[in-house]
Each structure stands twice: as structure tokens, then as C-alpha cells.
Amino acid sequence: MEPVNPLEQVLHAARALVLADLVARQVAEADVVSLVEDSVAQRRWWVEQWPEGAAYVAGLVAQDVQDALLERYGRWPLCPVCGTGDPHALDVEPELGPDPHWVCHKAGVKVAAVGSLGSAAGGAASS
What we know:
Strand content: 5-15%
Structural class: mainly alpha
Shape: globular
């Protein structure tokens, strides 16, 4: 059996991180998982064109899925930090960089690394 090439490892890791966040927030329905697969397919082409961008794929897939969910269902993931005011989504930072995190701009805090929403304040209870 051939070893998995580095590009596929990056894509599989990004998929796993975003799926973990979707599961943590109890929104990993089949149609939502399809959004992840669509993003991974698009990012495969992107990283083939720009291999140096491999470290950015997890954050980009998270942003792609967040954007697709906004169009279809509404804001995701909702901020578990702010208990008052209008519900708002977390943002991925850096927008194009390694080690992406979910950030609440209202509170000015890092909430969790992409893939770690289940351990963030509010955990699965926030939806």
C-alpha cells in the first residue's frame, strides 16, 4: 500500500478538524458534511496550485464551511462566550495563516483552535 502523500494528509487533517467542530456543535448532518467535502475538493485544487499554502488549508476549509452554512442555515458557530446581546458567529483567525482559531471579536478573545470547539466554553450546549 502506498503511503498517503503530504497533500492528502493536509486535506484529511483539515476535514477532521472542521468535522470535529461540526460534531461538537451538533450540526454534522449529512448535507452539512457534504459542504465540508465540497470545500476539501476545492482546496485540493488550490493547494496543488500553491503548495506553500498547505498550512492554511484547515482555516480555509473552516471559513468555506462557515460561509456555506451562513447562506443555507444561518450563523455558525455561535459564540459561546458572550451571554448577552444578539447571537453572533465566531470568526477564523488568521484569515490566511497557520494555526487557525475561532475568535470572538466582540469580546476580543480566542475561543478555541479550529477542531477544538468541543472543549470551548459552552461546548455542545451552544447551537
